[in-house]
Amino acid sequence: MTSHRHNNQTDATPRDGYLDAARECILDVGWRRTTLTEVARRAGVSRMTIYRAWSDMPALLGDLMTREWGTLVADRVDVSATPTPDAIADAVVATVDALRENELFTRIVELDPELILPYLLSRRGRSQELILQVLEAAIGAGQAAGAIADGDPRAIARGLVLATHGFVLSAHTMVDTDASGTGVDQSALDDELHTLVSRSLTP
């Protein structure tokens, strides 16, 4: 997966550098041990510089999550062409796989899974909102061209996001291949997700 760190220095801003420092700190020591002071130290700036950008670590994490994951779907759904069920299913599976492989996401789930719970149980985050917007646009464009099943694009997009939560967070619990390769592997589950999305969108 290509992370959303800003490797092109001509496009990077000081804020991007601060987020990069926070990202590396979380990867190294986890969320609980990451402080704004440590982020400032890693970024090579004063503590007050970081405090002027973010009042606390949750605010910083929100911006980091949005930068890291918010454009995954946008990078994989081409709304310039007519979206088809299979094209959207391809994009959804690719995005789910990218999230599962994202080193920051993996680190948070391993060490600080409680950070993810609010976005599953209480409210939508900015990254989810961005994903919904891209999916809604793709579904609406496909419906206008007669390629996607009728229905409220907002409800359809939200249903797809809900369906993919389990594939992002719990797919590993459903993988059980043995030494001979018999059983259900990740590829088989991804195929099922593709079928689920494609069939639900097919007129």
Q: Largest sheet, if any?
A: none
Number of strands: 0
Termini gap = 32 Å
Q: How do the SSEs run, as a string of H and E? A: HHHHHHHHHH
Helicity level = 55-70%
Describe this structure in words.
Helices cover 63% and strands 0% of the residues. With 203 residues, it is mainly alpha-helical. It folds into two domains: 14-64, Orthogonal Bundle (Arc Repressor Mutant, subunit A), CATH 1.10.10; 70-201, Tetracycline Repressor, domain 2 (Orthogonal Bundle), CATH 1.10.357. α1 packs across α4 (57-69), α2 crosses α3 and α5 packs antiparallel against α10 (186-201). It is globular, with a radius of gyration of 19 Å.
Task: Set out the fold topology.
Blueprint: H1 14-29, H2 36-43, H3 47-53, H4 57-69, H5 85-101, H6 103-111, H7 117-121, H8 126-144, H9 153-169, H10 186-201
Helix pairs in contact: 1-2, 1-4, 2-3, 5-9, 5-10, 8-9, 9-10
Brief account:
By secondary structure, the protein is an all-alpha fold.
